[in-house]
Amino acid sequence: MKKLLLFALFILASLPVAMAYRQVHFTVSDGTSDAELKERIEYAMSLLLTEVNRAHEAHMSVITVPSFVATAEAQQDIGKLWKNEHFLCDAEQVSERLLTVRDGYQVRGIPLVVTDSTGQNQLGRQEAVVSFDKRGTITSFYYTINPELYSSLYKQWMQEKHHETTDINDRMMVLNYVEHFRTAYNQKDLSFLQQVFSDDALIITGRVIRVRRSDMNPAGVDIKYIRHSKQEYISNLGRVFRANSYVRVKFDDVTIVPHPTLRNIYGVTVHQQWNSSSYSDEGYVFMVWDFRNQDEPQIHVRTWQPEFLDKAQGQRLSRDAVFTLGDFDLQ
Questions:
Q1: What is the rounded CA–CA span in Å between residue 163 and residue 149?
Q2: Each residue of 309-323: pLDDT tens digit?
Q3: What is the pTM for the complete model shown?
């Protein structure tokens, strides 16, 4: 209570004039019988979401999350997102289940309205994942995939009888990192992307080209593939980040497949929607994730293929043509 009072005084002192903003009350609906942990997480989440709303209403360029509820890494996660785009929680009451994960706990599906960095133009809605250590301190904040898709994947894995509990937990861990990876684009976080790609990563991008029509190709379209080194890709991405006031990446239709012979190697296929202030597209991203070091997983392969060969004609890339683990020799 003393900390709550001190933070309330801090907020009041930082406001030159009284401003109206939505205060959010968060409750843990299920997932723990530890009353003290439940109280700490509810307090931290209520404080975080209320502070997000205050910062949005005040058009603040920097968002402040107290260190007694969030680690320095979590504060950096939120700050990087806030620099690229702003967001607010438009619900006064939020209730979510507490999930137990490898390093602590999570709450998922936190509803957010996303705006540009001026706070004036809405960019759509997102759901956030907030992770906690075992004491209930916030350790990370990033965007989740669609909550319905997350639930569908989990139910699918549970129903596949050959999947052991450890395998399901491993897939959940992979999905968490994929979500963090996706958020790094929204954060324009080149340092994280530099870290997560292995030094010899194979990075391939495809673009549609026009070719001579033939009996085998009556539409006269094909995909030209270009191979990039890690440094080429990161350098190009840096130029894209600097040229755009915002970058918004969404992943949906996620498939996670363990390698048949190499343990802790996974193929991940996602449908990606890329939107920025100057460009937008849709396509398929395939990645090979290496979790042999679970504290520092790496991506060895990343490919991108356009969804449409001819959007005006409704001609899509066949799902059979999307890259999979079988297309790469990982030995």
A1: 19
A2: 888 777 889 889 999
A3: 0.83
